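This part of the workshop introduces the protein records we will be handling. To make this concrete, we reproduce a full record directly below:
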Amino acid sequence: MGIYSFLRNGFPLPNRRIAIIVVGLLTAAIAFADWLIVPNVSLGLLYCIPMLLLAAHLKPGEIAIAALAYTFLREGLSPFAWGRDVEPRLVTTFIAFLGAGLLAREVDLRKKTVEAYARALAEQVSLRAVSEQQLRGLVEGSPAPILTIDPAGKVLMANEATHQLLRCATQSLPGQSIDFYLPALAALRETTRVRHVIRTLIECTGHRLGGEAFLAQVWVSSYGPPGAMDLSVVIFDSSEQLRNREEVSLEALATGARVIMGGFWHEIRNLCTAMRLSVTSLQQRPGMADAEEVEGLRSLMNGLERLTASGLRPESPQTFDVASLRAILDHLRIVIEPWFQESQMTVRWHEPTDLLLIRADHHGLLQVCLNLARNAHRALQRSERKDFTISSTVEGGHVLLRFHNTGAPIADPDALFRPFQPAAAGSGLGLYVSRAIVRSFGGNLRYEPVKDGCCFAVVLERADLPFIVYGEKAGEEDPRVAS
């Protein structure tokens, strides 16, 4: 039992030099005791102890040399030294010492390997615990609703933001099915694609605990072995964005319709003016002043004029919005650059580093810029040189946004902004509506003659807001709070 424990626990000698000194002293002590012992009694078996101690610090060849030395030492101090049958005895003793040494060396190597593996495993476990703690802290502290579900749709983990979004009690989601809250995930799990790695975005209808519906954008990714993959889910409630988008679209639709109808009634008024001249001319003819047909035309003309007057009545003054020209140009770049790249056209941007705030509606001005860019793209398709430049400059209290392309110049600039032009590429309303939109927030859209191509300039008012201007200079007081 003691030898097994000794072999199992290893050999405590710290290094090779100390091992050689200790083994040398122990060998000398055993040899001296063996020399002093009464004849016919041999202590040769005790040489296994220094052999076991030394083997952990020797190579296999060195172990063989040490075993040979202990073999001759045992034989030389035995009671029947170098007697009959010495060869078999030497071979047996050598094999015994060599086997003990190799066994000790292998046990020590295995022990060191196990200890190194244990240290590495403990380090990995510690690092994993730290990583899991950091990840859990990140998930729990994230403002975004994050949860994980198993292949059956059961919630494994959900942070506090998820409980708040779904109106659930704290820590009540783990163990529940997610199918009631996000039915689209049930359909996703039933497809075969879940058996492979997925990274996708789903826009679907979600439900809170009380049954309230909301528009959910769900980022889904899978992890785990094939066939048994869990899903990690990040949820974003985009209901407010949907409401804002629909309200902006409705407002833009109403503005566009109002502008188009204004142009339509403007043309009707011009026709009414021509009709009035014709009716006046007919009345001056003998016998036509009181004709029934002339009176009918007069009544029809008066009715149309009343309609045009109501259609052209100005809207109530509106409060101008404040927009960031940088944000508008960034969104414009995202939308139009693929158009020009696909047609192998060059787009150049010349923007100052300090783009100012402007008095404009973000969505409306972006639509105007898109219309001008689309017109430039259409013009460059018929041009040999395909360059389109968008530049912005600050001139006094205005910001000028210029759209210059190298297409063919405009033959009749005066007719550009007239509605319902017969020669227009589209409906003949694009530039008319665009200028009306820009004028609705105090700006203007005009054509600027250039030597090469054509250029349109959008003139916008700067928005020098009080809460931005005041406080920039030391000692300047904001009159809003001074009173």
Q: What stands out?
A: Residues 465-483 have pLDDT under 50 and may be disordered. The radius of gyration is 47 Å. The first strand starts at residue 146 and ends at 149.
